[in-house]
Structure formats: structure tokens, C-alpha cells
Description:
11 strands; single chain; Rossmann fold; binds magnesium ion; binds adenosine-5'-triphosphate; eight-stranded mixed sheet; globular; binds iron/sulfur cluster
Amino acid sequence: xxxAHRFREEDMPRLLTVQDLVVEMPxxxxxxxxxxxxxxxxxxxLGLVGESGCGKSxxxxxxxxxxxxxxAQTGGSVDLSSNATPSKAxxxxxxxxxxxPTSSLNPVHTIGYYLESALHRHQGLKGSDARMEAMRLLExxxxxxxxxxxxxxxxxxxxxxxxxxxxxxxxxxxxxxxIADEPTTALDVTMQAQILHLLEELKAETGMxxxxxxxxxxxxxxxxxxxxVMYCGKIVETAPVEDLLARPAHPYARALIDCxxxxxxxxxxxxxPIPGSVPLLDCLPHGCxxxxxxxxxxxxxxxxxPSSAIVGPAHQAACxxxxxA
Length: 325
Ligand SMILES: Nc1ncnc2c1ncn2[C@@H]1O[C@H](COP(=O)(O)OP(=O)(O)OP(=O)(O)O)[C@@H](O)[C@H]1O
Ligand code: SF4
Ligand SMILES: [Mg+2]
């Protein structure tokens, strides 16, 4: 019985499999994403971290098939496979929420219009049914006086309230995968804590998978099961999140952790900035892209980009000289 159960679990396709994904500016030979691979199961949360410009948002857009004009997927694959009730297209539904909620909402539409049209599109609800469900969703994300709020415009809401509206909008699609691209970066710390708490609750309630993008390793530590560290369009380390934070193997991941300011008064170590800056994608250094900034670099590092290797249980890093555990 146990074996049969194990067989079914192993046999189940993963919700999302990204394999060797390449996104380029066609004609300019600039790779925005260069061989990104990872996978995600139903109910799992992946945290994507890395400095600005490393390709976190483009990874999300490629998964959602919404790359901006001028960029194209030129290699690899993004496979989505539903283990729950398949949608009409046979693919699991994906919803996305973005960094700046206020500018992501259309200022000429009321919150009610925004939510009810999403409910019509995704669930076929109209009129009072759509209005009732919109109010229920607003209540679910912690907004009060929902009847009057439906007549409000985004400029009448705070950033935190608009982010809740975006989450309610995302939930209207009943997603199996929610992609949250820096959902708390534009919010103050108390709003940030509330939104993170809400995402945790929704994950537990709905069983949806989550990809959370953040500069903030604290956000990743709180929400993610697995973390992937990106640098210049590549994933350089993946690991269970506690393992990554406690025992980073890639010098870049180590450096990101060392940059984090601590609020612990007994921690007298000041944050250590990473020397240099992220190279431009049209003039990447030979070999490991991190070598000009890496204190462990050797001549081997300048010759060829290192392939990813196992450095611990479910822990991989692309580095010739990983940091010892
Ligand atoms: N529309 C576009 N056309 C061409 N290049 C773009 C476009 N949008 C982003 N890029 C480039 O793609 C690279 C990856 O950008 P991306 O937005 O994914 O970075 P990010 O890791 O999300 O950064 P941030 O933390 O600042 O949001 C960057 O070098 C960026 O300049
Ligand atoms: S491969 Fe070399 S340069 Fe790159 S991170 Fe590892 S030690 Fe540093
Ligand atoms: Mg981004």
C-alpha cells in the first residue's frame, strides 16, 4: 500500500517545470535569461533572490507567457501540468501580483469594476453574483466596509490596501500557481508583515503553489520552502531555504547574506557590501560571471562558466570553489 502510494507520488507530474529557459533580445544576442531550470510542486513555495537586473521578473514573465515587447523565449521550455481540476486549456491557472500595486491598477476603473470583470472572465460570474463574490474576496484579504469600497478608485486606497486588491484579483482566477513579484517592496514594514501573513494564510487555505520574488532574504526565509539565487540571468544556487541561509555554498549567495543588516543589538558585525557591481548583460565576463567580484576566484573561474553540482541534500551550486559548510 505504502509502495503504491509512493509510486503515485513519484509518478505525478510536477506543477511547473522550467528547463534551460533562454530569453533574448532577438537580433542583439543579449541573453536576459540563460539556461534557467527549476521545478515546483503543488503547494510548494519557491523564493527567487538576486540583485537588481539579474532576471527575477523576466523569469516570472516567461512563466506567465507575458514577456515585454522586444524580448522572446528562444530556448528551453516552461511546462505546466495540473494535478487539480484542469482548466479549459488543460493548464493550471497562474495569477501574478506586482511590486507597485497603485501603478498596476487602472486609475479610471473602480475597485468593483476591476474585481467583477476578473470574476466574469475567470468564473463566468455576472451582476449581483459577481458583486457578492467581489465583496467576499475583499473581506478575505482583510478590507472592511466592502460594499462602499467597491465604488472606490485606486487613488482612494493606501498602497497596502491596493496590494490586497491585487491579491483579491489574483484569487478571482482560482490560481494553482501565484507569482508574487516583489509584492511588499513598495510597502512599509507593518503593511509588509500583513501582506506576508495574508499570503501564508491563502497558501494554507487554497494549497496553491507560490513563486515569491524579493530582494529581502527575510521575506524569502519566511515564505519559501526552496530558494533559488540568480545572477546575470542564471540560477547559481538552489537549496531548501533554511539550508541556503545557514550554509550558502555559492560565494554570491554568501555575499548576499552578509549584506543583510541585522536588527539584533548584540550582532556587532556591520553588513558587508559586495564589491563592484553587476556586469551589463552585453559585456559579461568570461567564465563565471561573478569572478570580478569574488574573493575566491581562481584562474579556473575565468575560463568557463561552472556547471551546477550537488553540494548537499537537494542543494546545488554552480561554483568551482564553493564555500565550505
Ligand atoms: N523590456 C525590456 N527590454 C529589454 N531588456 C529588458 C527589458 N526589461 C528588462 N530588461 C533587462 O532584463 C534584465 C533582467 O531584468 P529583470 O526585470 O528580470 O530584473 P530583476 O531581477 O527583476 O530586477 P529588479 O530586482 O530590479 O526588479 C535586466 O538587465 C533588464 O535591464
Ligand atoms: S566559480 Fe569562482 S568566481 Fe565563480 S563564484 Fe565560484 S569561486 Fe567565485
Ligand atoms: Mg524585478
